[in-house]
Amino acid sequence: MDMKKFGCAFKLYATRIERALKLGAMRIERALKLDAEQSGRLLKFVKEHKKISALCALVLLFVLFRLFFGGVTDGKPQVLATAEIGRGTVVKTLNATGIVTPEVGAIVKIGSRANGFIRKMHVRVGDEVRKDQVIAEIDSRELEAQVAEAEAALSRAEVEYERILNTYPLQIREAEAQTASARASADYQDLNFKRRKQLVEQDLDAHDTLDVARQQQIAAQQALVAAQATRRRLEEEFLRQRESAEQAKKQAEASLVTARIRLDYATIRTPMDGVVSQVTAQEGETVVAGLQVVNLITVLDPSRLEMWVYVDETDVGQVKPGMVVEFSVDSLPGKTFTGQVSLVYPEPEVKDSIVYYRTVVPLDKATALQLKAQMTTQCRVIVGSKENVLMAPNEAVKWVNGEQVVYKVDRDGGIKPAQVLFGMRGAEASEVLEGLSEGDVVATRLVLGSAP
Fold it and tell me: Which residues does 105 contact at the CB level (< 8 Å), separation at least 6?
């Protein structure tokens, strides 16, 4: 080969290498889906490991050289792998990143409203707990004394109440007896006055006896009025004293309930089943509860988890509640979990100048127990599918001069480009609407030849 031909070939292959590098970079970026932070890390790695990066670049150049210079010997295209066009199911998916997080109410921070030092801490991080289980105790001597004082006050109030109920009825009955006696005396003095008056009018008795009878009549009537007033006073006083004693008794009972509640604050119990995820205090430490409850222990229910999937703003219009989501985690390689979209948040979240929308996927109990909170997930949202459609593998689609081309392979091994109209695009295969027929063989890997 002379220098002129070598220069033309070198220029041609250089153009191909440049185009391949650009296409390869786009495919690598699409496959890896590197965000800004990951790209920065890759750049940092390249700068810090220049020798390794240079070696990788040399290996890549060697592969490209073999591909473009050594793969073509006679100017004819070479087919490396083929696939047959058939029917099947095309599934359209959206790739996104998610995070496992507890549901609302699945994580509880347990605090203390009592003051004092922690007398006993019954749990440690990782311990399983049951609802109403005692997990910590705070010194309660002062609170126990307050309960005893409240019990004594209630006892005094009950005694006073019983005294009023027993004493006043006796006094009222005594006043009723006195009233009856005074009424009888008044009635007698009225009769006596009438008899004396008749005798004096008949000149059978002296006038002085009539005056004495009149005086005795008035005294008896006044005694009756006084007895009746005493009885009414005792009845009214009994009602007042009984009501006051009842109120005092209720107040003492309420004070005792309050004291017992405060005493119960010293015994800290978990409100639900779960696992202790955090302990912020130890035995012997002093707890001072102010306007805000002091957090001591955090309990997490590992069976109540959900996943937040962050969907790009360009794809969020395709995501609807009820869609199936397949996802995996790095800690369980080869295992795929499924869930369904329940909610797409209307408010966006901006990260690294990219707008995302949080999509909530509840997890069933069996799935949640295999995962842990704050795990990162790789998600595929299934936005659509078509069954029993003609489809071609995505590897058969090649970009030539900015157009998508599929190369059909003849029975004799020859190839020819075909313009294909695609429908639904899947992750591995796409629906074929026009340009290919069932049973056609297409090239999935090939090396195109060129004129020397």
Answer: 304
User: How much is the pTM?
Assistant: 0.60
HSE of 448, CA atoms in CB hemisphere, 13 A = 14
Beta bridge partners of 315: none
CA atoms within 13 A on the CB side of 9: 16
Burial 315-332 (b: 16+ CB within 10 A, else e): ebeebeeebbbbbebeee
Count of residues making up the chain: 452
Q: Which fold has domain 117-138+266-300?
A: OB fold (Dihydrolipoamide Acetyltransferase, E2P) (2.40.50)
Helix/strand/coil for 79: strand
**Residues 266-297 pLDDT 10s:** 999 999 999 999 998 888 888 887 656 678 89
Is pLDDT of 103 > 80? yes
Angle at 126 between CA 124 and CA 128, to 5 degrees: 95
- 142-265, what's its fold? Helix Hairpins (1.10.287)
